[in-house]
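Retro notes, item 3 of 5
We never archived the inputs for the pyridoxal-5'-phosphate complex last cycle. Fixing that now. Sequence and ligand:
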Amino acid sequence: MQFRTRAIHVGSEPDAGTGAVVPPIHVASTYIQPEPGVCGEFDYARSGNPTRKNLERTLASLESGCGALAFASGMAAVHCVTMLLKAGEHIVAATDIYGGTYRLLHRVVDRAGIQVSLAPSRDLDQLAAAIRPTTRLLWIETPGNPQMSITDIRACAELAARHNLLLGVDNTFATPVLTRPLELGADIVMHSATKYLGGHSDVLGGALVVRDPELFDRLYFLQNATGATLGPFDAFLVSRGLKTLALRVVEQSRSAQRIAEFLEGDPRVSQVLYPGLPHHPGHELAFRQMNGLGGAMLSLTVPGDLARTQRVVQRTRLFHLAVSLGAVESLIEQPATMSHASYAAADRAAHGVADNLIRLSIGLEDVRDLQEDLDRALDA
Ligand code: PLP
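Structure as it came back at the time:
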């Protein structure tokens, strides 16, 4: 079956008992056991729930994995991966990552005695130079956040394999519609399901997908032992979102391309960071790795300081001023004070989170209305 067919049919089989074409939401927290010590497929909701399981089956299919795990948030999913490591071991993470991942690695994971280094993942030499004998995990995001840098997943997978590391890819921005990291050699795919998978700004969730059953068992053990699982109502919402994922991501990416081209020629804009533009340093790679599209996220810089940038982001009417991304409604934000505010000031500067940087999440509105909205805001 093709991707769009699987998004609709895998994990969403009609209910055998009633004939309902959408499976019911199972809310039970516990399950009757035929005798002490013996249980069926489900025994307790933290360990497994049929509605969550349906979502996990869809996700495993869309990401070409052997199995998936659904979490209460994207951060819970990243945290679960870091729990594979123990004190004295080391993580190399890309510089261009979500601010919350940076905070988790530098202010929570480090307390367990795990060391973290950052390196620009689009530069394989620098990435390789950051690897130590104790490194166990390479963590990348592509397109990167908020610079929209593009990382070569296949090359990272080869590097990871040479050093016997796990390669984890935060695939939140690209989604499996544009990129399937497991097919390119990654070991773990992670999602903030809050974003494109859910797609409607009405659910918080996260996911891991892997291709190795033994790694799946280790992650499942950690998830069940620590308990940050996704609830059944939220799992249902993400499952519903997945059915239109491909249509949304393709259409939103096309709009983003048009907006990037519109902004690029504008004298009120200093720089447009979008992989779909030919001058973007990752353009060629993005088109190979992202199914010929540049994704629906883009960043731009405007001439001026923090205050001027804040005036611009407060002036749009359709683009809501809010963190998050990937939903049907377009969003605008200032990474330096919003999504990436948890970066240490020095790291913000070093990693391109400039005061005059603006990040856009392009939604499903008519692109002409979005352009008009930006046009007005840029006069601020
Ligand atoms: N990864 C990326 C790329 C994100 O944008 C986010 C949230 O903005 C996360 C991870 C964290 O996900 P959540 O907010 O669902 O915990």
